[in-house]
Amino acid sequence: MKTKFDELLEFPCQFPFKVLGLADDKLMDKVVTVVQQHAPGDYRPTSKPSGKGNFQSVTITIQAQSKEQLETLYKALAEIDTVRMVM
């Protein structure tokens, strides 16, 4: 993954991820589990259902340490089975 995180951000920094997936009671837990593997910490993610209830978004903010960490998290979060997009 070729990103410009290192040019645009000064590490360490707070970095929010928004994960969009199918409506799933366990999506938030799955997101936290993946984040804990790459950026251990105490997280308080938020979740919001879509208007029709078919999808949900989970927002979680981490203390990012490097460009590589962010790139790894983008890939790992995208691999969750019910996830459709990571922003």
Low-pLDDT windows of residues: none
Record the strand order, biggest sheet: 2-3-1-4
Multimer state: single chain
Instruction: Give the helix/strand class.
Output: alpha+beta
Q: What's the alpha carbon Rg, rounded to whole Å?
A: 13 Å
* Total helical segments: 3
Q: Give the proportion of residues in helices.
A: 25-40%
- Provide mean pLDDT, rounded: 95
Question: How far is the first residue's CA from the last residue's CA?
Answer: 14 Å
The strand count comes to 4
**What's the order of the H and E elements?**
HEHEEHE
Strand residue content: 25-35%
Report the biggest beta sheet as strand number plus sense, adding barrel if it closes.
Answer: 4 strands, antiparallel
Gross geometry: globular
